[in-house]
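User: Please fill in residues for this 127-position structure.
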């Protein structure tokens, strides 16, 4: 025929079979890699969603802590203001009492120095 020996045909058929098997293996590997890429993409998407969720929770937690701290500080401020008001009220009352006492003493001294007079209801002065 064409000068090709049966041995060479057999070798070429074996080589073709080996290449077909290799092609099948490469297609299988390609499919596995595509599946793995798909799995990784889904995992990445899920991880990103989880991360967003965790960030949202962290942000809300920090906002709550900030609000609690703000309320605590406002409470302390209100207590300090109440204490200052009470202190001012106590000082004012003390000053008023002292002023009243001083005024009574002063009027008492003034009344002691005035002469005693009896006045009738008719308005005449008795001597």
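Assistant: Residues filled in for all 127 positions:
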């Amino acid at each position: 025929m064409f000068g090709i020996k049966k041995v060479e045909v057999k070798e070429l058929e074996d080589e073709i079979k080996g290449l077909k098997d290799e092609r099948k293996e490469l297609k299988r590997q390609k499919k596995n890699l595509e599946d793995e890429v798909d799995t990784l993409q889904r995992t990445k998407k899920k991880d990103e969603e989880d991360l967003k969720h965790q960030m949202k929770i962290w942000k809300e937690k920090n906002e709550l802590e900030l609000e609690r701290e703000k309320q605590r500080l406002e409470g302390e401020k209100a207590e300090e203001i109440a204490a200052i008001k009470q202190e001012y009220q106590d000082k004012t009352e003390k000053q008023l009492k002292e002023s009243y006492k001083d005024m009574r003493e002063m009027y008492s001294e003034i009344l002691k120095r005035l002469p005693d007079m009896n006045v009738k209801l008719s308005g005449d002065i008795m001597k």
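For context: Residues 6-113 form the longest helix (108 residues).
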